[in-house]
Specification:
20 helices, about 85% helix, 2 domains, about 0% strand, mainly alpha
């Protein structure tokens, strides 16, 4: 949560300094390129492949053997990242063209995007190495350092923004250089935390053996499986660069709907994967299903009100957070519209995150990869088909549809294999949560439409706008909680802790 709060502060500065114009679009592309590879490889595929293998070695042979395995992976990873980073810097024009095809019509914008992307790209090198040490910490039950590392990125970029204001310099230069610096700072933090915990990963000469081949066999399909949302967003961004301002609008909207994705989906997935891996290794299949039940129910308890709330309150939220400086009322309207479409797919993407560990813990990265590929194909098709009519909104809508399609395919696989089937307590809890979210949205909608104060919301002082928005959030949360309490959803959640009651079918 601290990471997300500081992330919003960071984006408030970025919006005020860059708005949604050409400089903002260049920043989005330059920042998104290393972040794309980070989320695909470092956060997603790496954890999906490394944590189960490390945990398996830890359970079977003990910590020294597990750290030796991590050292062999580190050596190959270091060699790969060095080569990949150098090649990417050389061929950066092609990479920028791939994710920002609309920039090709403006030579100056394209050249600037290539220049700044080269400056930011070393961030990927540091953050990918960080992921190995974070995986070691997570697999041994130590989550704090890895969870705090993203906060440092936000703090460094906030500092860069403030420094640009103090020095009256070009904000884009300060922000982009801050990205690479932040990667180094994050890497140092996690390495120091691992060493203080007695988890010293030895560095060996890079060579391929049975362990490393097995690891990369899992990583390659995991790149797609764990990065479905990012691949969809990348495709959307590339298409959206054909519309002025669209890449920036989608970036700001994405940042908001990524809040519950990061706080709920990613956090649950990170905590759930080691637990499921240990349970499956011990043949505790009932315990694994129990953990999955609880994860899904908790995920939706937090995601459904967030999705409905963001949908109804999109305009005042964007206004309060971003509408200042270079960010105009027109930018608020365009960003809020995109956010609403993203919200339609939010529950699906969080559930995909919550269900992926059921595959990864069984060392199956291929099945989610196939499901994700179908979703990506649907996203491309819809984005291209609708962009001429809907503009940037087509990207958000296509992303949402792709999320639900991917989720449906994953649920069918899990059901057929009997790896997870929701029991009666799960279905009752989800039903109550859906009703609560609908009632909450209806209540907030009535207030937004009929409260005279909101008609002049944009003209109020910032403190008044923030206070009104906070009141609406509290009202929505209160309505949702009351409906869940009356409907017995919280009692069903407590029942999920009782294994004897978990798998009664509805």
């Amino acid at each position: 949560m601290v990471s997300r709060v500081t992330g919003f502060v960071r984006d408030i500065f970025i919006a005020a300094l860059l708005g949604a114009g050409p400089l903002a679009e260049i920043f989005v592309i330059a920042f998104r390129l290393p972040n794309l590879f980070r989320r695909l490889f470092a956060e997603g595929a790496f954890n999906a492949a490394f944590v189960p293998l490390f945990s398996e070695r830890l359970e079977a042979e003990g910590l020294p053997a597990a750290l030796e395995f991590a050292g062999r992976i580190l050596s190959v990873l270091l060699a790969f990242l060095t080569a990949f980073t150098v090649l990417s810097m050389v061929f950066m024009p092609g990479l920028v063209l791939a994710i920002a095809q609309g920039f090709s019509a403006d030579a100056d914008k394209f050249d600037q995007a290539v220049h700044y992307a080269r400056i930011a790209f070393p961030y990927l090198f540091f953050i990918s190495l960080l992921s190995l040490f974070a995986g070691v910490l997570n697999a041994t039950g130590r989550f704090l350092a890895a969870a705090f590392a993203p906060v440092l990125l936000n703090l460094v970029l906030i500092g860069a923004a403030l420094l640009s204001l103090m020095m009256s310099g070009a904000p884009l230069d300060y922000l982009i250089w801050g990205v690479s610096l932040a990667g180094l700072v994050q890497f140092v933090l996690v390495v120091v935390a691992a060493r203080r915990a007695g988890l010293k990963v030895p560095l060996r000469a890079p060579r391929m053996n049975a362990d490393t081949r097995r690891f990369f066999t899992l990583v390659v399909p995991g790149i797609l499986a764990a990065g479905i949302g990012q691949i969809n967003l990348l495709i959307g961004t590339s298409i959206a660069t054909g519309q002025a301002g669209a890449a920036a609008w989608l970036y700001y909207a994405d940042r908001l709907y990524q809040l519950p994705m990061g706080v709920i989906g990613v956090a649950l997935a990170v905590a759930l994967l080691p637990d499921l891996t240990r349970r499956i290794a011990r043949a505790d299949h009932a315990g694994a299903r129990a953990s999955q039940d609880l994860a899904v129910t908790l995920a939706m308890l937090l995601t459904l009100p967030a999705a409905f709330g963001l949908y109804v309150l999109a305009d005042p939220i964007i206004n309060v957070l971003f509408e200042r400086g270079a960010f105009t009322p027109a930018d608020t309207e365009a960003t809020a519209s995109a956010l609403r479409y993203f919200c339609l797919g939010l529950p699906a993407f969080v559930l995909v995150r919550a269900l992926q560990p059921s595959f990864f813990a069984r060392q199956d990265t291929r099945s989610p990869m196939i499901d994700g590929a179908v979703g990506v194909a649907a996203n491309i098709t819809l984005s291209l088909a609708l962009f001429s009519q809907m503009g940037h909104l087509a990207i958000a809508l296509a992303t949402a549809v792709a999320g639900w399609l991917t989720l449906l395919l994953m649920l069918v696989r899990l059901w057929r294999r009997d790896h997870w089937r929701p029991g009666g307590a799960v279905m009752r809890a989800l039903g109550v949560q859906c009703v609560g979210a609908l009632v909450m949205a209806a209540a907030l909608g009535q207030v937004v439409q009929n409260w005279a104060l909101l008609a002049d919301f944009a003209t109020l002082a910032f403190g008044a706008r923030a206070g009104v928005l906070a009141g609406l959030v509290v009202l929505g949360a209160g309505v949702f909680a009351i409906v869940c309490f009356i409907g017995g959803g919280l009692a069903d959640l407590r029942a999920l802790r009782d294994p004897a009651r978990l798998h009664r079918r509805p």
